[in-house]
Amino acid sequence: MPASQAVLPTKERILGAAEELFARHGFEGASLRQLTAAAGVNLAAVNYHFGSKDRLIEEVFRRRLDQLNGRRMAALQEVSGQPDTTIEGVLAAFIVPALELSHDGSGSLFMRVLARAFAEHDDTLRRFLSENYGHVMRQFTAEFARLLPHLSKEELYWRVDLVTGALTHAMSGFGMIQRKSDVPEQQHREQTAQHLIRFAAAGLKSP
Amino acid sequence: MPASQAVLPTKERILGAAEELFARHGFEGASLRQLTAAAGVNLAAVNYHFGSKDRLIEEVFRRRLDQLNGRRMAALQEVSGQPDTTIEGVLAAFIVPALELSHDGSGSLFMRVLARAFAEHDDTLRRFLSENYGHVMRQFTAEFARLLPHLSKEELYWRVDLVTGALTHAMSGFGMIQRKSDVPEQQHREQTAQHLIRFAAAGLKSP
DNA sequence: GTCTATAAAGTGATAGAC
DNA sequence: GTCTATCACTTTATAGAC
């Protein structure tokens, strides 16, 4: 049996192909036929393993967001609530886990899937994301509120929304600002994080 | 003949319905059948008037972007190249025409269509937008470069990209931050412009 | 210009053999 | 758990009557 080799199980192969094709062609644009062909599995396997295309879409998000948001919350926990907490520290807790995912090889396309989810104003998808991961944004917003007590609620929501938009856009367009071959991977990631953090911090702190 | 009434010609009706359905369901998600039904025209009318779905998509962009980017360029012309030009003035030239469109009643959904075009990394669509409207972003970027001479080319591109992402996101999500009924339309628009300009200016100017 | 009718291909989902 | 075959539609696009 070749099952002991580095061949992923069917379910993982489908999730991987789905992530790539959803990123490139959208949720409606990528058909189950393209997707199962790319994964090298049978067409019927999607319905067997996931029940429907919609539930496959949810699993694509769940697989990445459980880990991504877990890391964000852990990082936030470490820097928040202290007397010396900085805006920059909180932003890093939000951004760095996403950049790590973006450079993961696998997973590098997930931020583009997430950017599509933002552009789709699909109610079902938004409810799924809000119910499962809404607490993350609420926690970060609460910490920003604590660090920026002079801002009105309205002003704060505006700025957090603008930061979210800027970061999602930037991270989904990742790879557009190419890493030069003489810059090592990790240094490039740190420079990117610095660009994003500096910009977002200035926007949040603006008078 | 009722044709002299306020009934729009077929071509305009199709463009209007297409804009709304592309905003709500995406380019692949909205079918020509839904679209022609919403416009109250025959299915075959799309191919008669536009040739194909792809060319209809291009016309949806052209109809709004010719005017929107024309106004942006005119506004930029007025404020740029002066010794007293400000970052805020240049940002207003970019933002205010888009907000006017967003509150136009008709056209209020176009920014969502534009946000989708960003999320789609479709090469054909990107080339169309770049060839026809790329000069606008280049002109604005050049003016930012003049006003922020201490920034490296790389740093400048990063910040302009982040501003673009933030603004597109914010304007496509428009209406989420609701205008309260006791605030008049124009005042609400001016307040929104101020939020966006303040945030973007701070990000661009950050040390 | 607008209509019906239809071609030709693609869609998600499922039943049932293995 | 994986396969083939197929159902029941929907898709874009077009030919040809009016």
Written description of the protein model:
The structure is a homodimer of 207-residue chains. Helices cover 72% and strands 0% of the residues of chain A. Chain A has nine helices and no strands. Residues 1-5 of chain A have low confidence and may be disordered. Chain A folds into two domains: 1-51, Homeodomain-like (Arc Repressor Mutant, subunit A, Orthogonal Bundle), CATH 1.10.10; 53-205, Tetracycline Repressor, domain 2 (Orthogonal Bundle). The first copy, chain A, is an all-alpha fold and 207 residues long. The structure holds a DNA duplex (18 and 18 nucleotides).
Please give the oligomerization state of what you see.
Answer: homodimer
Query: CATH superfamily of the largest domain in chain A, called what?
Result: Tetracycline Repressor, domain 2
Distance between the termini of chain A: 65 Å
Q: Which two chains touch over the largest interface?
A: A-B, 42 and 43 residues
Structural class of chain A: mainly alpha
**CATH architecture name of the largest domain in chain A:** Orthogonal Bundle
| Fold-level CATH name of the largest domain in chain A | Tetracycline Repressor, domain 2
Please outline the major beta sheet of chain A. none
Q: State the shape of chain A.
A: globular
